[in-house]
Amino acid sequence: CVLCAVCMFTFFLSSFCLQVRIWDLRKRQCVYTLPAHNSLVSGIRYHPSGNFFVTSSYDKTVKVWTSPECSPLKVLNGHEGKVMAVDVSPDSNYIVSSSWDRTFKLWSKEQD
């Protein structure tokens, strides 16, 4: 199970599936289901700025999403194995991912 708290009342959850679910604790329900990847979602990180979040997956990709719209901004390809984890730098300029292929990748959020 992958869990990422966004604020006191909202969190993102993926239970080893292809989707990310956004839950609102005030409503006690899932408010949005995002069809995120083609394989299991392995990581979710929401940047504190509130402008974007990232997901990683066994489909060998990292995806950058807008927030709160949950629209895909870009797909980061380059790993040869399952992407196991993802994180965002405090200044939001970089994304780091680690993979089953024994590599780490440092991505510029602005790179194409």
SS element count, helices: 0
What is the radius of gyration?
Answer: 13 Å
Uncertain residue segments: none
Succession of helices and strands: EEEEEEEEEEE
Arrangement of strands in the largest sheet: 1-2-3-4
- Mean pLDDT score, rounded? 83
Mind explaining what this structure looks like?
The chain is mainly β. It has no helices and eleven strands. It has strands at 2-5, 10-14, 19-24, 29-35, 41-46, 52-57, 61-66, 72-77, 83-88, 94-99, 104-108. It has a four-stranded antiparallel beta sheet with strand order 1-2-3-4, with no helix packed on it.
Quick summary:
The protein has strands at 2-5, 10-14, 19-24, 29-35, 41-46, 52-57, 61-66, 72-77, 83-88, 94-99, 104-108. It has 112 residues and is mostly beta strands.
Labels describing this entry:
mainly beta; 112 residues; 4-stranded antiparallel β-sheet
SSE blueprint and pairings:
Blueprint: E1 2-5, E2 10-14, E3 19-24, E4 29-35, E5 41-46, E6 52-57, E7 61-66, E8 72-77, E9 83-88, E10 94-99, E11 104-108
